[in-house]
Design brief:
The complex is a heterodimer of chains A (273) and B (324).
Chain A lengths: L6 H7 L9 H19 L5 H23 L2 H34 L1 H7 L7 H10 L2 H16 L7 H29 L2 H10 L1 H6 L12 H9 L1 H14 L4 H29 L1
Helix pairs in contact in A: 2-6, 3-4, 3-7, 4-6, 4-7, 4-8, 4-9, 4-12, 8-9, 8-12, 8-13, 12-13
Chain B lengths: L2 E12 L2 E12 L3 E5 L6 H8 L7 E6 L2 E2 L4 H5 L2 E4 L11 H11 L4 H14 L15 H13 L5 E5 L7 H16 L3 E6 L2 H7 L2 E6 L2 E6 L1 H8 L2 E7 L5 H12 L4 E3 L3 E6 L2 H13 L4 E7 L3 H9 L11 E4 L3
The chains are: A mainly alpha (273), B alpha/beta (324).
Subcellular location (chain B): Cell membrane
Keywords (chain B): Antibiotic resistance, ATP-binding, Cell membrane, Membrane, Nucleotide-binding, Translocase, Transport
Membrane topology (chain B): Peripheral membrane protein
Chain lengths: 273, 324
């Protein structure tokens, strides 16, 4: 009974090439390609990534700018680096978890599960495929920022560094919603969490106003909030000022989030599947 | 005796609902096992356990000699699954779906394309290969779904109600494809709600209900068990009903039953009697609107096997049909 590894079919099997190295990476990239093709055919799903930065930048600059800085132009310089961080974090939180829940409910994922591929590949492919939103959102933000009069005060290399750092940070934090999505598997609950989660994280910082103006308990939170480091790093890289420490802290926190949350999400995904 | 897959005493519960109450399924290499049962009988759960998508609460199952729980990763290298619901991506074209799956199975880009083209041709989807799946008809989706399960040339193929919802003509096309799989040496597990389908395709049939096996036999044995076939005749002219009844009763030697819609039915012992009835009606000059040799419906199968009337919602399907 145990030797039922039937012979004739083994011959048929050899028609396929043998296993190649890095299966998880290759399979995830193939599946990310699938996500991109889908996005390309339904470009409407990218609308939120394009509209969100516009709304936030306009709101902060014209609604609060006069009150906080006395001039919206001055405030634009102050708030832009923070809005960059807000944009990359929200981009990761809002869409990534949701598209995974939608994917998991479809029959396609059932088929993937019955195939000899890395268990986490569909999850990773979905997250990687969604990463196309970051450059779009950031490009939109910079385009509008420049139209309104924002100017990088450092140099192109530093500005690119700010972009790379904030995107990386947003991507690392997006695994939080991925984890929530895998655990809850319910679109409306995932949207709610993805919508509420960024508030304490992003707004409890010096993004919109200097921390000194806040009550003590909020200052204490802003002090320990990892996103504060990202905002400091973004300011330093775009406007000048101390860079080394906030960048190092941002990388550290981003790294921790990635190393803890991504394997946890992958584990939860494999277990629930 | 070598079994391509073998399940013993599978139990699966969902909360208080018992989907499987200890079922055994097995098929020898290169044969087709039909699993016949109504909705909710546990067919899909059984397939999901064999395809490593679910773990049983009790019992064990092996596929190709490998345990479906312990050696799940190895089992997945040998199986192909076609689900009850189309498991293809609507936003991709048929060809893109197949190429992606080929790539995931380690085929080179060129090999994946070649395999996709081959399967699209084999399943009569050549011209639809470039269309997005969202534009496919139900039958086309089913066929693409079957192709998707065959990309890796699996030695064991699980088909979960592959023809449910298809027109009779399309169903027979798919039957031909399924038969050719078995002819090529694959082992097939096919679930269905139609005795006719199991009869046409399977070497052996396992009938399940409420998560239990209630019969296992060859198609011929099962038909013997559940009773023979029935002739259905509906004359083109309702006024000829009495004449038809006389002809049929003379040939079969059995009384006819009058059905709704001006049709007559009578059980027959041998297919030969059907041919005799056709001939007798022809020489009597009677035009018929419907003339069929019908297998028992799933309802009748269950009644014969369990003695309990069970409304499965499935009507009988016709085996042979001709108009004169």
């Amino acid at each position: 009974m145990t030797e039922t590894a039937t012979r004739p079919t083994d011959v048929r099997r050899t028609a396929t090439t043998g296993p190649r190295p890095w299966p998880l990476l290759r399979q995830s990239l193939a599946l990310a390609g699938r996500s991109l093709t889908k996005t390309w055919r339904n470009p409407g799903v990218l609308l939120d990534a394009l509209i969100m930065p516009v709304i936030f930048l306009l709101m902060f600059v014209y609604l609060f700018g006069g009150a906080v800085s006395g001039s919206s132009q001055e405030y634009l310089q102050y708030v832009f680096p923070g809005v960059l961080v807000l944009t990359t974090i929200l981009t990761g939180q809002v869409s990534t978890g949701l598209s995974i829940v939608l994917d998991m409910k479809k029959g396609v994922f059932d088929r993937f599960r019955s195939m000899p591929i890395a268990r986490a590949a569909p999850l990773l492919g979905s997250v990687l495929g969604d990463a196309v939103r970051y450059p779009l959102a950031v490009a939109m933000l910079f385009g509008l920022g420049y139209l309104l009069g924002f100017r990088v005060e450092t140099d192109v290399a530093s500005a690119l560094g700010a972009v790379a750092l904030t995107i990386g940070f947003g991507f690392a934090l997006s695994w939080l919603t991925v984890l929530v999505a895998v655990l809850l598997r319910n679109e409306s609950m995932v949207s709610t969490v993805a919508f509420l989660l960024p508030f304490p994280l992003v707004f409890g910082t010096s993004m919109a106003a200097p921390a000194e103006t806040m009550p003590g308990w909020l200052q204490a939170w802003a002090e320990v909030n990892p996103v504060s480091h990202a905002i400091d790093a973004s300011r330093g890289l775009l406007l000048g000022g101390p860079v080394a420490e906030p960048v190092a802290m941002t990388l550290l926190w981003g790294g921790i989030a990635l190393v803890v949350l991504a394997p946890l999400a992958a584990w939860a995904y494999r277990r629930r599947m | 005796m070598s079994y391509a897959f073998e399940a013993e005493g599978l139990v699966k519960r969902y909360g208080r609902t018992t989907a499987l109450a200890g079922i055994d399924l097995r098929a020898r290499s290169g044969t087709v096992l039909g699993v016949l049962g109504p909705n909710g009988a546990g067919k899909t759960t059984a397939i999901q356990i064999l395809a490593t998508l679910l773990q049983p609460d009790a019992g064990r199952a092996t596929v190709g000699g490998l345990d479906v729980v312990r050696d799940a990763a190895l089992v997945r290298r040998r199986i192909g699954l076609t689900g009850q619901y189309a498991t293809v991506d609507e936003d991709l074209t048929g060809a893109e779906n197949l190429v992606l799956l080929g790539r995931l199975l380690d085929l080179s880009r060129a090999a994946a394309r070649a395999r996709a083209t081959e399967l699209l041709t084999q399943l009569g989807l050549t011209s639809a290969g470039g269309l997005r799946v969202s534009a496919y008809s139900g039958g086309m989706r089913r066929r693409l779904d079957l192709a998707a399960g065959l990309i890796g040339r699996p030695e064991i193929v699980f088909l979960d109600e592959p023809t449910t919802g298809l027109d009779p003509g399309k169903r027979e096309d798919l039957w031909a494809t399924i038969r050719s799989l078995a002819d090529d040496g694959a082992t097939v597990l096919l679930t269905t709600q139609y005795l006719e389908e199991a009869d046409a395709l399977a070497d052996e049939i396992t009938v399940i209900d409420h998560g239990r096996v209630i019969a296992h036999d060859t198609p011929a044995g099962l038909k013997q068990l559940v009773g023979g076939r029935t002739i259905v005749v509906r004359p083109a002219d309702p006024d000829q009903l009495a004449a038809v009844a006389r002809v049929v009763e003379r040939v079969t030697g059995r009384p006819v039953e009058h059905q709704h819609g001006g049709a007559l039915t009578t059980p027959v012992d041998a297919a030969q009697q059907f041919t005799d009835v056709v001939g007798a009606l022809g020489s009597a000059g009677i035009d018929v609107a419907e003339l069929a040799l019908r297998l028992p419906s799933l309802d009748e199968v269950f009644f014969s096997l369990t003695g309990v009337t069970r409304r499965t919602g499935m009507t009988g399907v016709t085996e042979t049909k001709e108009s004169a």
